[in-house]
Structure formats: C-alpha cells, structure tokens
Design goal:
Distance between the termini: 14 Å
Structural class: mainly alpha
Order of helices and strands: HEEHHHHHHH
CATH topology: Arp2/3 complex 21 kDa subunit ARPC3
CATH architecture: Orthogonal Bundle
Oligomer: single chain
CATH class: Mainly Alpha
Strand content: under 5%
Largest sheet: 2 strands, antiparallel
Length: 189
C-alpha cells in the first residue's frame, strides 16, 4: 500500500479503536472511567501528533453526528456541550501533546535505545493525560457550577490510579509497536 493510503487506513483504524473504548464505561459521578483517553493518547504516540489528533477528530465528528461512540454509547451535540465536553476536547489535545513529545524524542531514529526512549514515552503519556484533564476539569467546573476543588475532586482525583494503570499498559505498547507503525507510514525510496 502507498504511504498516504496506509496513513488513512491507520487513522481510521485508531478512530475505530477510540470509539470502541467508550463501550466500557464505569460511572464515577459526572465523568465515567473509560479507555478512550488512553486510546487517544496512544494514537498520538503511535501515529504521530497530526494523525493521532486526526483519529480523535474523526471520533469527535462521528459522535457529533449522533453515532453512539461516546462513553456509555452516547452521541450527539448535547454530549459535546455538556459537562464532559472538556475531556473530549482534551482527547484531541492529549493526542497532539503525546504525539509531539514522542516524535521529538524518536526523531528520524525509529528504533532508539530503550533506556533513552522509555522515560520519554512515559513522560509523553503522562503529559497526554494531563492535557486531557486541564480542559476537562475546567469545563466540568463551569458546567456544574463547582469550585475548582470540587471539580478536581469529581473530575480528576478518582481517575488518577486508573490512568496510571492505563499509562503502564500503553507505554510498553507504544515502545514495541511504534517502530512498525512508523515503517508503514513513512515513504520508502
């Protein structure tokens, strides 16, 4: 396959993976625990910042059109304007942030020394999760009329342990799979 075709296929594939991540949702108050944030960040780390964010963009467009791709099988503009809207926007930002951090670390070398790559990929994942929570908590605060402390208590603190587990899962995946994914996405002479 040509690199452009493969890029489109990989972007669509990751959009589908992000969509699938919403079907496992554990309600923890106004914000559910889902795998979508981890898949959004992983898409940036594997595909690069623009394609990873593109995968999230496709996911958001599908949800805006009413397809049941958001947590708990919800869809529509009401979700994109509700209390969890900031988290959804954060998925896009998180994919960009994590993707840029990993791409910068790898540079042209798609098989870097694991000892050097691990801290960078780990920090990229953590920065990606942080990028999800900044707009998420701020929109939650405004939408529900909470204080910042209340918004943090409802929209961040209950998710820290789960996101650390997700980080522990996606970092080795990114380290192992990114070189192969990038070989398919990079034009060959």
């Amino acid at each position: 396959m040509k690199p452009n075709t493969m890029s489109s296929v990989m972007t669509a594939l990751f959009a589908a993976v992000i969509c699938a991540g919403g079907f496992i949702a554990i309600p923890l108050g106004p914000v559910p625990l889902v795998l979508q944030n981890a898949f959004a960040i992983l898409s940036g780390m594997l595909l690069g910042p623009l394609q990873g964010a593109g995968a999230v963009g496709i996911f958001l467009i599908l949800g805006a059109l009413g397809l049941p791709v958001f947590s708990g099988g919800r869809g529509g503009m009401a979700v994109l304007t509700g209390p969890t809207a900031g988290y959804l926007a954060g998925y896009f930002i998180g994919a960009l942030v994590a993707g840029f951090a990993v791409s910068r670390a790898y540079g042209k070398n798609q098989n870097p020394d694991l000892r050097k790559a691990l801290p960078v990929v780990l920090s990229a994942a953590l920065m990606g999760f942080a990028a999800v929570y900044v707009p998420g908590v701020l929109v939650l605060k405004k939408a529900l009329g909470l204080t910042l402390g209340e918004a943090l208590a409802k929209g961040l603190i209950p998710f820290i342990a789960g996101d650390l587990v997700k980080t522990a899962l996606i970092v080795p995946i990114a380290l192992k799979i990114r070189p192969a994914v990038q070989r398919y996405l990079t034009p060959h002479d």
